[in-house]
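Feature request, filed as a ticket because there's no other form

It would be nice if the structure record came with a short human-readable summary line next to the tokens. Right now we just get the raw output. Example of a typical job, pasted below so the devs can see what we mean:
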Amino acid sequence: MHGNVSILLAEDNNVVRRSMSEFLLKLGYFVVEATTGAEALRLFREIRPHLIITDLRMPELDGIQFLKIVKEESELTPFIIVSGQGTMQDVIEGLRMGAWDYLPKPIHPLELLKHSVERALERAQLLRESRDHQGYLEKAIEQRTADLLVQNRMLEREIRQRQAQEELVQEARNEWERTVNALPDMIAIVDLEHRVIRLNTAMQERLGRPLAEIIGQDCLMCRDAFPCLHAELIEDRKPRTIEIFDRDCDANYSLHVIPYYAADGELIGSVHVFHDMSEQKKSMKEKEILHAQLLQAHKLESVGQLASGIAHEINTPTQFVSSNVGFLDEAFADVQKIVATLVNADEQQILSGEVLKQALETADWPYLEKEIPMAIEQSREGLSRVAHLVRAMKEFSHPGGKEAEVVDINHLIEMTVTVARNEWKYSSEVQLELSPDLPGVFCLADQIGQVFLNLLVNAAHTITEKLGRTPEGGKGIITIKTEVDGPSVLIHFSDTGCGIPDFARAKIFDPFFTTKAVGSGTGQGLAIAYDVVTSKHNGSLTFTTAVGEGTTFTIRLPIKKSVS
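Raw output as currently delivered:
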């Protein structure tokens, strides 16, 4: 499928290199392998691959040195760095020098490698096309329009004396039309008086009017929906670009307005170039949908991880409800005996206080009178706990709407604490300090709920790591506090756990970074939380920590609508 795309893979670890190479070969790429930095540099100069993937730590010539040479010789060659040993400073240096992406070793799952390669190749293709298209378009327009302007002005002065040159004027116009009409972008030239003096076929078709009704008339491209870039350009002679949405044809365009000069340098108008961005916008929309699906998948994964604990939480009250029902069944049989004895005595006309007393003593009525109400109350409490947990779980696992809405943050926190109870109840106590005056916050409830769950589970895990699953000397404390701070609300998640070590603090929100043991975490929880809060809600997620004492994560969310 990608057989014509070559990838240079530089990795000194044979196992890692072969694993990556075989995976890329299965995807249809042509892969060239190198085991040293020097060999990689030689192969790069020989084959000029479409993409380079290299480890940061390489013998003879390391990845940073290799990257520097590649960027000097071929700036647009995509370059992905992979490292399991280098520090984050090495990675930052690589990205600063021009690396396009970074993948930590081991790469798991390998679909991450596929995604990174496809994204790099797609970006490289777009950059090449954009560079070629922009260069060709600007040169073609500037050269042709400048030539036409010189020819037209000369012909206008000499037309009475040189009628024979009319053919040259017509030929020049035809050449301009052939050149610009071949372009898919919509192009028009507007003079200083806002009159249309040239336009290509694509622009004419979009306007849907004959040339005679357009040439020499006032510009029809300005709309109330966006400013007149032509007027702004006349003021400072600087090119301008804006993105617009055309409701008439349901299309997105980028509008480039370029100064239009005469041969003597005099500004005589501007060139308008409309480039259709509908496909690009469609692709961005599809990526947003995919991102939403990934968030929901992570949420369902969290629900799955909590399933056994939730089952336990439901089982406990169910058991004592079942026991109470059994007791009530036996108690009812005793009450039946009392009633039967009294009915029989009445039929024999021997019913008396003594008979009643004897029947009540036989059935142990004082015991029943005390225990039956207690059994009913306990059963009600147990059923209420089950209903509360099921309701919370139903709300939490619901995919939610695509649009933001006003959300009760305190209720969302309480629901999250209920759902995750089995994660924290053995090692921690949860204290809620929820502001009763907290206003509703405009946000995506399901995504913010996932953030709360990630932070709560992380807090429980760090306390468990410090004290153990069932601590003997007392449980740790998780405090969740809400408050209003100007136009925002603050949500604090504090724990008395291990704290975050110095080496991890700069990486804590990086995808796939985790300080937990292998198999105990994916490193996605805090990365997703950070993305949801900052990118999706224009808020912030920060933390303070002390090793051995605990950590506080603080979420700041705007109260009013600000969802991206």
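Something like this underneath would help us a lot:
Residues 403-564 form a domain with the Heat Shock Protein 90 fold (CATH 3.30.565.10).
The longest strand covers residues 251-261.
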